[in-house]
Design brief:
Blueprint lengths: L1 E8 L12 H5 L2 E3 L12 H12 L3 E9 L8 H18 L4 E5 L12 H13 L4 E6 L7 H6 L2 E4 L8 H16 L5 E7 L13 H11 L5 E7 L13 E7 L2 H17 L1 H4 L6 H10 L5 E5 L14 H8 L5 E7 L1 H10 L4 E6 L11 E17 L5 E12 L2 E6 L9 H4 L10 E4 L6 H4 L5 E5 L36
Length: about 500
């Protein structure tokens, strides 16, 4: 058989001030050979698919592999160029038996609210009805009807942090090739949970729910179970959580299980809602805690959700309260980094930090800093097992606080975002990370406690107040019971 594969994606925060253009995709760009490079943010599925395909003697054709750091809406001409490149490669590769695509599921471009659905629909026209199309998505996706009707199988990550990308890729590969051989007939059904929330899978009761999803697969005709959490900061019609079930030949069975699991998610809504501290409340908890440092997650300024990562609200309060033995990062501030490189290691200077990208960035803060360490290409461990590169970066200290400044925007994944510059963590009272959840896997082992902080930023966790203009269905928590007849449009 012949396999065609590609990876194209970004997570679009439609409220973000940062446009997503050519440069954003070129930071992670391969064509024809993305699967032959070291694991990065988005080529993990391609690596898994090529290895499996070649091991089984299939012919493998590969197109583009690119992923832009989450930000604002993708420029139309950029999206259309990327899409058309992928489609041209597919046309040139015909005939193909299986198409496997790695995408995000929440990509929005000017004129295209559902980029994934648009691409899948065009792929189906090219390959016809007999080819099998499989799609691997981030669980923070907008599951649309266009995706469901164009694809044979869609599988999302199950874990948040996303530590199961390779596992899900292998699952999709196996399911799609079984379908191509006629061994199974995938049928997909959704359940709209009518909820907008963030579900953290290492924590109960979500841990048990994810394990239960896994246990259902491979029994009684159920091929796969996914829970698409949705990406709350996308102003599109299909924003929100959906359960996706794939059964073998029986749509009714898939729909029934999706509804039952959706009801379980609904019944857990209060237990799974993450409590968020105020800035001062979180600082108070950290200062009162003895032993290992407390990790504070600056969830609203997470680059992984499209935020600039230059909001200074928490840093302001640390300085105003005279908190010491603290570290905070990573601030995206290329200009400040340039000033530090110009001054050199050991230099003392008055430095303006953050507050540069727009209203969500807040006010800059001016501090008398000492430049402790400079690296031309700082990096951290990423979820892929590879490295996430920050580019030129600086460690500066001021008022007993260590601050990490970077030139390439990334959320904070791992402790070496700090220790890689020489900053010690074991002697800190608190560690502030600009991340929503992906930090959890690497920081939990060193944290005395983890707290989620509701500070100002581009992805505020107040889901009730997100100013949607395109979702027409009611949802919780904006409506107490979105299933009540009185709340239906």
């Amino acid at each position: 058989m012949k396999l065609f594969m590609a990876a194209l994606g970004t997570e679009t925060n439609t409220f973000s001030p940062i446009p997503t253009g050519h440069a954003a995709f070129r930071e992670s760009w391969f064509r024809d050979d993305g699967s032959r490079h070291a694991p990065g943010i988005f080529n993990i599925p391609l690596i898994a698919w090529r290895r499996a395909g070649e091991a089984e003697g299939h012919e493998v054709a590969e197109s583009i592999c690119t992923f832009a750091q989450p930000a604002g809406i993708t420029v139309r001409r950029v999206y259309e160029e990327l899409r058309d490149t992928l489609l041209a490669d597919l046309e040139a590769s015909k005939p193909v038996d299986v198409v496997l695509l790695a995408m995000h599921g929440a990509m929005v471009a000017q004129g295209y609210d559902d980029c994934e659905g648009d691409i899948l629909t065009r792929v189906r026209r090219i390959v016809g009805s007999d080819a099998v199309i499989g799609l691997e998505l981030d669980l923070h996706c907008h599951l649309t009807e266009s995706m469901r009707t164009a694809a044979n199988a869609i599988i999302t990550y199950k874990e948040y942090p996303h530590v199961d990308m390779a596992e899900r890729a292998a699952e999709l590969y196996g399911l799609c090739f079984r379908a191509a051989r006629g061994e199974v007939r995938p049928r997909m059904a959704y359940c709209d949970c009518r909820m907008i929330n963030m579900w953290r899978t290492p924590l109960q009761p979500m841990r048990d729910f994810v394990d239960r999803m896994r246990a259902l697969e491979g029994h009684d005709g159920i091929l796969s179970v996914s829970f698409g959490h949705g990406f709350p900061w996308g102003d599109v019609e299909d924003v929100g959580a959906k359960v996706l079930v794939i059964s073998d030949g029986e749509m009714a069975k898939a729909a029934d299980l999706a509804q039952r699991l959706g009801q379980e998610i609904w019944e857990m809504r209060e237990q799974t809602a993450t409590p968020h501290d105020t800035i001062d409340g979180a600082i108070n908890i950290a200062l009162a805690k003895q032993g290992s440092p407390v990790v504070l997650a600056d969830v609203a300024d997470n680059a992984g959700g499209g935020a600039p990562s230059d909001n200074t609200a928490i840093l302001w309060r640390l300085v105003e309260r005279g908190v010491t033995d603290a570290v905070i990062g990573c601030f995206w501030d290329p200009q400040a980094v340039k000033f530090c490189f110009e001054a050199g290691e050991g230099a003392a200077l008055l430095l303006r930090i953050g507050g540069k990208s727009g209203p969500a960035s807040g006010n800059p803060i001016d501090l008398q800093v000492t430049v402790r360490r400079l690296l031309e290409d700082h990096s951290q461990a990423s979820l892929s097992g590879g490295r996430a590169h920050f580019g030129a970066s600086a460690w500066v200290s001021a008022n007993g606080i260590d601050i990490v400044l970077v030139s390439v925007r990334h959320q904070t994944f791992a402790p070496d975002a700090f220790t890689g510059l020489g900053i010690s963590l074991e002697d800190k009272r608190l560690i502030v990370v600009k991340s929503t959840q992906h930090f959890h896997a690497a920081f939990a082992p060193i944290a005395g406690q983890i707290r989620y902080v509701s500070a100002p930023g581009a992805i505020p966790p107040d889901f009730e107040k997100i100013p949607y203009t395109k979702r027409t269905q009611p949802y919780w928590p904006r409506v107490a019971d979105p299933f009540a007849r009185s709340n239906l449009p």
